[in-house]
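Reminder: ligand-aware prediction takes two inputs, not one.
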Amino acid sequence: MPFRIYLGSSDGTPDTTIAPPLCWTVDSAGAYLVVNEAAAVFFGQSAEALRGTSWLERVHPSDRDSCRAALARAGETGLAVQVEHRLRGGDGGYRWVLSTATPAPSGARSIATTCFDITPVHEAVERLKIFSLAAEQSPVSIVITNAAGEIEYVNPKFTATTGYSRDEVMGKNPRVLKSGEMPIEGYRDMWAELAAGREWRGEFHNRRKDGTLFWESAVISPVRDSEGKITHYFAVKEDITENKRLSAMMADAQRKAQVAQRAKNEFLNNMSHELRTPMNGILGMAYLLRDAPNDPERETYLRVLSESTEALLAFMSQLLDLASLSEGTTVLHVAPFDLAHCTSHAAGLFAAAAFEKGITIETQIDAEVPSIVAGDSLRLGQVLANLIGNAVKFSSTGKITVKVVPDPSFAVSGSSAGLRFSVQDEGIGIATDKLDIIFEPFERADTSSSRKFGGAGVGLAIARRLVEAMGGRIWAVSRPGHGSTFYFTAQFQTL
Ligand code: ADP
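Here is what comes back for the chain with adenosine-5'-diphosphate:
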């Protein structure tokens, strides 16, 4: 019966090649005695010509030692040995062969050898070795599952990325990595595509063994056998967590840049309004004054003229103040002052405006608050004036309460006092999502109402920088339609 060796061809289909074995006997010195027809064809010489020539001389130089040793072992033990080596054919090229050498019964001192040409098998194995090394050393994760979705292979990159060892995931479904962060339909679509024999590309938000989340970009393709049946799924996945983080950062930076640009445009519009209004007042009044007869109207014109000039001056100094504070050039001028006096002075600045609207301003200073402290009374007064001024501006009725209490969050020390100030009103209130941004320069809670109330959105930004310079922080609590309370803390020296 002819020998039939099944060799795997490169496309995975079995290749049936009849390979007649090469047979010969050699004497104890390794010289050919008898060779079969197949061997004579292989060596390209007749059996007679081969007789007496060296067997080893036709073996590849690199394989000679192992062949010599195998032959010696066969001679010593009297047992058959098998060795894989290269053999030179008549065309001068080498073929891989599997030789089985069987010593003749004792006394005969010859060895019979049967040799199969295994070159195609050898090449296939070498190819597989390369595939295997490439998969093992791949910089991306590789997962192979069977048709039921059970893992049969993962490469080292997979274990490094997920924290799961090979043994821990073998036979399991890749859903061991599922984080619950992805919509279930995503998986359903993926399996539908794969089951239909199509490739699937997408992203997974997965969970590592240590519980941390990571993003993977994946390409999964079905693997089919020679009959077209899907036997496996082959997944190549790359950790894209860092890319995701960077693109989120870039999107955030872009969003912030857009917000800043919008704020800048708003500011420019607003500034032009804030400058033009008092300018028009000044010009108009000057024009009227020039023509007005000497009568009581002149007094009204002069009042409007000075009010407009004051408004312009106040706005310009606010802008200059913000610019100098932004550069961190604020120096606090520390000197002893009367807290109650500073607070009521700030409230007093708005007494007339409040009175006109029917709003009362009340100041309450806790008994525990020292009456004289050392600090920058002008800067403190400026912050209080900004908050009280806003409270009056954004209220049409009700009461404004200004309070000063000791602040428990400051470390207690004999020589310093941490105080908390609050300004509470019953005005229009502020939407929750604006409570933080109003402390940014040129930001207003409601740009549509700003025309009505005036202001360029600079005051709170200045207040925040001043409060920080005084070792404290500023924040607001509010609900639209239910008034606002602005808080700030600051640290002073006690005397
Ligand atoms: P502005 O000059 O616009 O008042 P601020 O920086 O002082 O500038 O205030 C920023 C924004 O915060 C205001 O435009 C307003 O939308 C909001 N705001 C400040 N104080 C109050 C308040 N007491 N009640 C309601 N909204 C306020």
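Residues 386, 390-391, 394, 425, 427-428, 430, 438, 444-446, 450, 455-461, 484 surround adenosine-5'-diphosphate (CB under 6 Å). The first strand starts at residue 5 and ends at 8. We will return to this case in the review session.
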